[in-house]
């Protein structure tokens, strides 16, 4: 039943994906305006994150950034629906206008030591996934949704038996990733997802302690794989038909992300993600409760409670 409902959902997504780009933008902007006007949870989480991460901004500056974040988030969501319902080749030909640092990936693959792609929630990471899968077989680590329907839907929209393997974030999945890296394969990880309590270390992220995954560092240590940072950044202006324009970037990560000391490793990882997010803070996913778990013994409360849970 879950697969059937996911197939129906995919048909709905395909219909939305057929809308012209200007229509998609107007729809996304309408959702963003409604979100702001109604003070919905996504808007409140964004406001809380911006207060924590940018304490030096005055209230008007933070409100402008909150506006920009919610509009960029809504557009990213609708453009992703279109990406999922169109051939990857067409997406890449029409939307990706610049590629920087592809040689880093080519060299790392040629070394046959395995490659870990650390791709933060910045810009459009689904377009990045499609570019990577077009270039090399790819195993993607993901946190499965609690809904079986949504899990089946993700399997459907990212399905590519020859190029993409989706790996669940659990013990068996970690072993699968190590096997992939051991054969010189390429693994994609979103490094800025908050892990469960006890599965990470705290390190500053925009000056605020954030529980950060140690998994990426452990995989790099055990496999000897090369770690690359990658992101797909939205560019100003638009292409033919009002389509968005993107620049893809790849560069080597700081070697400290694989430091045997997990505290140093997560600090380096957060610093790398922060460098990318600061390129254009509006393109980063500030709608996520990144700081909900706090270091023990410091008396800090969950900053989102209770206003961001209603």
- Which residues sit in consecutive blocks of at least 5 with pLDDT less than 50? none
> Which word captures the global form?
globular
Beta-strand residue fraction: 15-25%
What structural class do you assign from the helix and strand content? alpha/beta
Radius of gyration: 19 Å
What's this model, at a glance?
The chain has 310 residues and is α/β, with parallel strands linked by helices.
Write the layout of secondary structure elements.
Layout: H1 2-17, H2 21-38, H3 41-53, H4 59-84, H5 88-95, E1 96-100, H6 102-111, E2 115-118, H7 125-135, E3 138-142, H8 148-157, E4 164-168, H9 171-182, E5 186-189, E6 200-205, E7 208-213, H10 215-223, E8 226-234, E9 246-252, H11 262-277
Parallel strand pairs: 1-9, 2-5, 2-8, 3-4, 3-5
Antiparallel strand pairs: 6-7, 8-9
Helix pairs in contact: 1-4, 1-8, 2-4, 3-4, 5-7, 9-10
